[in-house]
Amino acid sequence: MTRPDLVVRSRRTVTPEGERPAAVAVQGEKITGLYDYAAPLDAAEDIDLRDLALLPGLVDTHVHVNEPGRTHWEGFDSATRAAAAGGVTTIIDMPLNSLPPTVDVAAFEVKLRAARGQCHVDVGFWGGAVPGNAKDLAPLRERGVYGFKCFLSPSGVEEFPPLTPGEVRQAMAEIAAFGGVLVVHAEDPALLAEPSGPTYREFLDSRPGASERSAVEQVVRLAAETGVRAHILHVSSAECLDVLEAAQADGVRVTAETCPHYLTLAAERVPEGATAYKCCPPIRSEANRDLLWDGLARGVLSCVVSDHSPSTAELKVPDFAAAWGGIASLQLGLPAIWTEAARRGYGLADVVRWMSANPAAMAEISGKGAIKVGNDADLVAFDPHADNLIDASLLHHKNAVTPYHGSTLKGAVLTTWLRGRPVDGVPHGRFLLGEQ
User: Fold this and answer.
1) Residue-level pLDDT at 435
2) Whole-model pTM above 0.85?
3) 11 found inside a domain
4) Does the pLDDT at position 276 exceed 70?
5) How far is C-alpha 195 from the geometric centre of its chain's CA atoms?
6) Do 107 and 137 touch, CB atoms closer than 8 A?
7) Is residue 210 helix, strand or coil?
8) Does 31 map to a domain?
9) 11 burial level (CB within 10 Å; 0-12, 13-18, 19+)
10) Amidohydrolase-related domain spans which residues (predicted)?
């Protein structure tokens, strides 16, 4: 056996087979062996975490970095620092909220130039499907985006308009022809309304769960017709679950995700004026939250990703009708989910499946998402018992706005390794480009 560069040992190593004592050997950037916890291995560096957990780096396929154009909201340096601090070693950047949006190859090149040399974790990219750019989808895929995002309702930024049902079908047919994936913000605009006032209840009433269900029904029908692989983003309403479950049972190629805020927060506990909680679709009731957990446990929802959508504090005015809708939580997803998962009787292996293995599989990112031989040595030392008092001002997010401020979460990331090297403040993340 070649002498490993690094061995990391833990009595709580989370592998695809479950949690067990193990020693993980790393040579260069790859995992080269999994051994008994106490195996004698002559490594250049040997780290024993003892009862601290060793996880694979998390994979967050839903991150709004916003650079270029809205870099004062977030940027590649700050976003990827936050990711690493939260145990996330791979992100996929969304195509909107940057200027220009990633809707053609020229715009993608602008984004790549903006990100170059700034990334502390590995970064992939989604392209956008908007009215009139069907001809740009195949070239974007060839250049390396992992798939395409569209909206069925207004996105909140005028440069990224929604698709009509006919345009969705056209995009699906185009994407199916080259074997891609369409990821969909699914709210039916016909069932949305302007909030009737500034309170959270009025905002919530303006975006009912029925709007999500109706949009998911449309996506399922069109995916069945075209054969495209479709993925429903940020499911907040349990009204979608039976539609998704039936479609999956019928062989429709549709998967779905939810987010930490839908699994850990509840409408009943949103303070009035606390617009750090505002997002679209909205945080719903405690009873709805319980049903989302059930859908996750049954595999109807397969991924838990952040939908990190930050903004400046000035845009979070204390009026739910007027405030920017987006939650900043990239650094906090792991402790937030672990806190609630542990309370409900789930283990670290479940969390890793939802937050690492399944997102990597959904986006078809090779070499990520699991501690196994041949994969990148993306590793996280995690203390599952630590009490973690959240101070927004200490986060790496560019703007100190998060609904978790002041809460105590369970679990803390101690060290993050990217391809065998500790993330140490020097950017050594790479661009991950899909099949070209």
Assistant:
1) 59
2) yes
3) no
4) yes
5) 28
6) no
7) helix
8) no
9) middle
10) 54-423
Strand partners, 53: 12, 382
Strand, coil or helix: what is 338?
helix
Residue holding tokens 């956008």? 128
| 114 C-beta neighbours (distance < 10 Å), count | 17
Share of the chain above pLDDT 70, in %: 99
> How many whole angstroms separate alpha carbon 87 and alpha carbon 56?
9
Q: Which residues neighbour 264 within 8 Å (Cβ) at sequence distance 6 or greater? A: 289, 336, 337, 339, 340
CA–CA distance, 355 with 303 (Å, rounded to integer): 6
pLDDT score at 1: 64
What count of other Cβ atoms lies within 10 Å of the Cβ of residue 135? 9
Interatomic CA distance for residues 1 and 38, integer angstroms:
17
Count of the separate structural domains present in the chain = 1
Residues 175, 145 contacting (CB under 8 angstroms): no
421-422 vs 408-418, strand pairing mode: antiparallel
The first and second tokens of residue 8, run together, are: 């990391």
Q: What CATH number does residue 208 fall under? A: 3.20.20.140
Asked whether residue 172 is domain-assigned, the answer is yes
At 199, list the tokens.
């309170």
Banded pLDDT at 434 (limits 50, 70, 90): confident
Give Cα separations from 219 to 161, 169, 243, 389 (angstroms): 17, 9, 10, 40
Q: Measure Cα distances from 149 to 36, 183, 388 in Å.
A: 43, 5, 34
Residue 383 lies inside a defined structural domain of this protein? no
> In this structure, which amino acid lies at residue 366?
S
Q: Count the Cβ atoms, other than its own, within 10 Å of residue 343.
A: 10
End-to-end CA distance of the chain: 34
Q: What DSSP string describes 3-66? A: PPSEEEEEEEEEETTEEEEEEEEEETTEEEEEE-TT-----SEEEE-TTSEEEEPEEEEEE---
Tell me the residue range of the domain where 288 lies: 57-363
Two structure tokens written together for 336: 């937030």
